[in-house]
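Morning run. Coffee first, then this:
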Amino acid sequence: MSGAEFRAFQGKRPDHERWELIGGVAMMMTPPTITHNRIAGNLERLLNDRLERHALSLLATQRPGLELGSGDYKPEPDVGIIDANYEAGQRFVERAYLLAEVVSDTDEVIVPGTNREWIDVKRDLYRSHDHCEAVLVIAQDRMEVELDLKTEAGWKSSALKGGDAELSIPAFGFRCVVSDLYEGTPLQPRATPQHRF
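And here it is:
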């Protein structure tokens, strides 16, 4: 399936369905876990809190439709930083400045015609996107973030392990500790009393 055929197919599907084009093959993604959604929501909120003070021309959003140059691949990032100006009803953007994935089971499928996992192909696609300054790959089952930052010398990668590790993305004036991404998940439960109804 070509990229254009995929977008036409995707346009006819219900909004609640999640599809990605992987090596020319349309694949429906399984619904994300609550932990996945919580991590993505935390990241979106933390980024927007910082962008409101650092760069009002940008916003963080979940599941931005991203048009990349490759027709064989149409990933759907879990969180992205995009331009704050967009049209009502707009689904897709051609520029994203940060792209993040919370790793799911479907990210571990082998891409047709390769021996590579989908998460690794997505990471390379995001890094090849001209406008992208940072890529995050976030684990669900442990406090761990793989961070790629674009520098003048090329991409610099680091693995941040443990809740106290500092996540810093200077291009957006962003800084937090890894545990902030996991707040409200089984790995970092909220310390609140039980509600009685």
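The chain has four helices and twelve strands. Good start to the day.
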